[in-house]
From TrEMBL:
It comes from the Bacteria. It catalyses: dCMP + ATP = dCDP + ADP; CMP + ATP = CDP + ADP. ATP binds at G10, P11, S12, G13, V14, G15, K16, S17, T18. The gene is cmk. It comes from Holdemanella hominis. Pfam families: Cytidylate_kin (PF02224). Keywords: ATP-binding, Cytoplasm, Kinase, Nucleotide-binding, Transferase. This is Cytidylate kinase. The lineage of its organism: Bacteria, Bacillati, Bacillota, Erysipelotrichia, Erysipelotrichales. Its EC number is 2.7.4.25. Belongs to the cytidylate kinase family. Type 1 subfamily. NCBIfam families: cmk.
């Protein structure tokens, strides 16, 4: 098969990462989880007590930050495996704020485009179809109701042994949707050429097979 890139956008908790992981494995592609990169930036601001309104401090942070993934898609921030830490609720909310900053987006988009330049990637996020990979061979927009998404994220946390409260997760999802869709730079949008999959009532296997059908 000719090497291609697959772009998947959609709101929080819609299952993009889970689906991308499975499809990547089936098609022998690599999965790039761009949300994890924004989460690393957010986690670092919290850990180091950086004021995100301080342009100089954010610029220094972005100049020195090191984010990379291993073969199992564990994410490393400045050499430390933070795969679990970046999934905490406070990091999710902070990521929604730091991802509004032009300086953060510029550096991460650049990095993402470099990683995917030779194709063979399935990339999930908010601005992949519109900004990161507008030339991707396959573009998908995944959607689901906010209640379905909150329930899934709650189940995911519990299965990973992370403390969770459904109502808090639901409220956070609604707030994050609003922030992601109304920000000035690269808001979450469904591009005209993206194929929408509403996953509210679909199992993981059903979504995977829809994606594979689209890829062809
Ligand atoms: O996908 P995930 O929930 O892990 O993303 C965390 C946050 O990072 C999102 O709420 C969003 O604000 C931001 N993000 C983004 N652009 C991307 C991926 C994530 O702005 N491509």
């Amino acid at each position: 098969m000719k090497k291609i890139n697959i772009a998947i956008d959609g709101p929080s908790g819609v299952g993009k990462s889970t689906i991308a992981d499975i499809v990547a494995e089936k098609l022998n592609m690599r999965h790039l989880d761009t949300g994890a990169m924004y989460r690393c930036v957010a986690y670092k601001t919290l850990k180091d007590g950086v004021n995100i309104q301080d342009e100089k401090a954010m610029s220094d942070l972005m100049d020195t930050i090191d984010i990379h993934f291993d073969e199992d898609n564990h994410v490393y921030l400045d050499g430390e495996d933070v795969s679990k830490e970046i999934r905490m609720n406070n990091v999710s909310m902070q990521a929604s704020k730091t991802s509004q900053l032009g300086i953060v987006r510029k550096k991460l988009v650049n990095l993402q485009q470099k990683v995917c330049a030779n194709k063979g990637f399935i990339v999930d996020g908010r601005d992949i179809c519109s900004v990161v990979l507008p030339d991707a061979e396959v573009k998908i927009f995944m959607s689901a109701s906010s209640k379905a998404r909150a329930q899934r994220r709650y189940d995911e946390y519990i299965s990973k042994g992370i403390d969770a409260d459904y109502e808090t997760i639901y409220q956070d999802i609604v707030a994050r949707d609003y922030q992601d869709m109304h920000r000035e730079i690269s808001p979450l949008v469904k591009t005209e050429d993206a194929i929408e999959i509403d996953t509210s009532d679909l199992t993981i296997d059903e979504v995977v097979s829809k994606v594979l059908d689209i890829v062809g």
